[in-house]
Amino acid sequence: MNMLIKRTALKLVAIGLLGGVIAGCSITKNHEKEAQIKADKEGLSVVKNSKFDGTFVAPNAQFAQYKKLFVEQLDLTDVKVRKQSNPNLIHDTPWELNDNDRRYYQERYTEALMNNLIVDGRYSTAMQAGADVMSVRAKVLEIAPLGSKDDMKGRPTNVKVYSEGMGTMTLEISLYDSTSGKVLAIITDQRDLGKIWEENNRVTNNVQIRLAFDAWLKKLRSELDRLSVTK
User: Fold this and answer.
1) Which residue, 13, 29, 100, 154, shows the most beta carbons closer than 10 Å to its own?
2) What pairing do the DSSP bridges indicate for beta strands 133-145 and 68-71?
3) Structural domains in the chain?
4) d(C-alpha 177, C-alpha 179), whole Å
5) Which residues are bridge partners to 189 per DSSP?
C-alpha cells in the first residue's frame, strides 16, 4: 500500500511539473495579446512558424503583387518606458527618449529597411500609392532599459553602469495596401538589446539599437519572401 501511495505521489508530482512547463511555454506577452486583438478586429489570421513573436496576415493578401514600398517614418510617439526600479542605485532617475534619440532610432530603422529590402532590388521605394505599392508603418511600443540613462538627466558623468545588455525593445510593424488602405499584416516582436555583460553607456546602447533594427528588418524580408510564395 505504501509503495502504491509513493508511486501515485510521484506520478502526481511529474504531472504537476509537466503542467508547469506547458503553462510556462504558453505564456503570452502583452504585446502579443494586443496584436492579436488588433488582428482579430481586422480579420487577420496567425502565421505559423513565424520568425517574430506574432505575425498576422489577411487571408486573401497577395504579397507577390507588391514591388514597391511606401515607407513611413518610424513612429516614436507614446513609447512606454518600463524601467525596473533598483533601490541599490543612488542615481535611479527616469529614463526618457530625447530628440537626438528619436532621430537616431529613425535613421537606424530607415537604414536597416533600405539595406534589407531595397538595396538588392527586391523592392523599390514609392512616393505615392499604386496597385503594386505596399505601405510600411513601424512603431516602437516599449523600451525596458536595464540601467539609468547615459545623459545629464540620467546619471553623473563619473558614474559607470554595467548590465547584461541594454534591456529590451518591442516593435510593431503594420503593412497596408497603399490604394485601399486595407491591413495586409500586423507583426509584433520583442528583442533583447544585447546579452553580454558590458558597460551600459550611450555608445554601447546605440550599437544595440542598430543591431536590433537590422535584425528586425532582416526577419521582415525573410517573412515577406515566404508570404510572397505562399500567398
Assistant:
1) 154
2) parallel
3) 46-230 (3.30.160)
4) 6
5) 171
